[in-house]
Design brief:
Elements (H helix, E strand, L loop, with lengths): L1 H6 L1 E5 L13 H4 L4 H10 L7 H10 L4 E7 L26 H10 L3 E7 L20 H6 L5 H17 L6 E5 L10 H4 L1 H11 L4 E2 L27 E2 L2 E2 L3 E5 L16 H13 L3 E6 L9 H17 L19 E6 L4 E6 L6 E4 L6 E6 L4 E2 L2 E3 L2 E2 L15 E4 L11 E6 L3
Parallel strand pairs: 1-2, 1-9, 2-3, 3-4, 4-5, 8-9
Antiparallel strand pairs: 6-7, 10-11, 11-18, 12-17, 13-14, 13-18, 15-16, 15-17
This protein binds alpha-D-glucopyranose (GLC).
Length: 425
């Protein structure tokens, strides 16, 4: 897990036929589309501007250390050259395996590689009708599907996982999505989850697997938790102990490219989301939905560039960081991340205070302080340390507090970061 917890920040990519209707990756289910209706997107999927090297460079420039890409989403369309189906990119106008050049480009950029793979499959002839199947409301289809054998689908699922984990070199993470037990649902029995997980671990012993095989209570059934589209109040715990967790989030209200969806988070919101996630000991997997031409659209690129600019100066407060010890309380109007190995703490200042910032519990713990983006010193006062704060002025703060003198005006940084060099214990 070390590389993963130190990485802290990754790119999610949701790409496939649903980029063409451009109104959410669940479009086929939401609109009850038949195979024939959805086939028009297969016939038109021609990402002529797809440049996986540019995708990989963009992820790296944004400060992301790993990329998780959809190999197959719920619609069943496969982006790689699977031998087990014709519903795949090489047989569409795309005319080639779209995963292989991306895997190669990611490796060239020094990024780790994750595959997202849907357990659901609305195209496969043995996949049984459930509460999400696109044709669940079509009595004739439902009647005709009664003879389907989910066991044969589970074999197909395992066969494709075998292809993905043997033909593309080392794969670092596997994001399986997702189990939905209950009425008309699907769970571990449907997927043959224990058999599938054993295969995964046999083929790629180092791979990190997420928590959606319906094996939460199964020893070794998952390596990290995946809160989706929300910020946990505190770091994830399981059986009373902290566990690795990664929140996956979108820029807007859709994972797949959605042309008209307008709820796009700002750069500032996304930076705060990243810092808050790390301050709670988690990873952020931030999603891009490329267009049917194979591009990250301008809305996505604006945000990736904005985050990348901030990360180029402040990445030290994210990479290799995590939750601070309990005795370092959360700063007022701020977030705290902590790099134990480096002996440094980072204050992400969300509301710039005019003049001073008081940090409880840190008096005597800090030997030097600076603004991270330009390494400009921040004088401070606090028990056992006075660094030219304002000689003679004693802060009225609590005895265990450290008071930093700040420039009155916020520095020209979206979210300014204060780097605290801690005294070695
Ligand atoms: C939800 C969505 C799915 C998306 C996934 C990402 O399961 O339904 O479309 O791929 O979240 O975690």
């Amino acid at each position: 897990m070390t590389w993963w917890t130190e990485a802290r920040f990754g790119m999610f990519i949701h790409w496939g036929l649903y980029a063409l209707p451009a109104r959410h990756e669940w479009v086929r289910s939401r609109e009850r589309q038949s195979d024939e209706a959805y086939a028009r997107y297969f016939a038109r999927f021609d990402p002529d501007l797809y440049d996986p090297r540019e995708w990989a460079r963009t992820a790296r420039r944004t400060g992301m250390k790993y990329v998780v890409v959809t190999t197959k989403h719920h619609d069943g369309f496969c982006l790689w050259d699977s031998k087990l189906t014709d519903f795949k990119a090489p047989l569409s106008p795309a005319g080639r395996d779209l995963i292989r050049p991306l895997v190669d480009a990611l490796r060239d950029e020094g990024l780790r590689i994750g595959f997202y793979h849907s357990l659901l499959d609305w195209h496969h002839p043995e996949y049984t009708v459930d509460r999400f199947h696109p044709l669940r409301d079509d009595p004739a289809f439902v009647e005709g599907a009664r003879g389907r054998d989910i066991g044969r689908y589970a074999d197909y699922l395992a066969g494709q996982i075998r292809e993905l984990l043997t033909e593309y070199g080392r794969i670092d993470t596997l994001f399986l999505d997702y189990s939905f037990p209950g009425p008309e649902g699907k769970c571990r029995e449907d997927w043959r989850s224990e058999r599938l997980l054993a295969l995964i671990r046999e083929l790629q012993p180092e791979i990190l697997v997420n928590d959606r095989l319906d094996l939460l209570d199964f020893p070794g059934g998952w390596d990290y938790r995946t809160p989706e589209q929300f910020m946990p109040r505190e770091g994830f715990r399981f059986d009373g102990r902290p566990v690795p967790w990664e929140t996956c989030q979108t820029f807007s209200g859709s994972w797949g490219y959605d042309r008209d969806e307008s709820t796009w988070k700002s750069v500032r919101q996304l930076i705060v989301l990243l810092a808050e996630t790390v301050s709670k000991g988690g990873n952020l997997l931030l999603n891009v939905g490329p267009t049917g031409r194979g591009l990250f659209d301008n809305r996505a690129m604006d945000r990736l560039r904005g985050i990348g600019e901030w990360m180029s100066l402040n990445g030290r407060s994210i990479h290799g960081c995590g939750q601070a010890p309990a005795e370092f309380p959360k700063p007022p109007n701020g977030l705290l991340t902590y790099n134990a190995a480096a002996g440094r703490a980072y204050v992400h200042v969300l509301e710039w205070p005019p003049g001073v910032l008081t940090l409880d519990g840190l008096a005597g713990r800090v030997e030097y302080a600076q603004l991270l983006h330009d390494a400009s010193e921040l004088p401070f006062v606090g028990a056992g340390g006075e660094t030219g704060f304002m000689p003679g002025r004693r802060d009225a703060g609590p005895s265990d507090a450290l008071t930093l003198r700040l420039p009155v005006r916020q520095p020209d940084v979206e979210v300014p970061v204060i780097e605290l060099f801690l005294k070695r214990p």
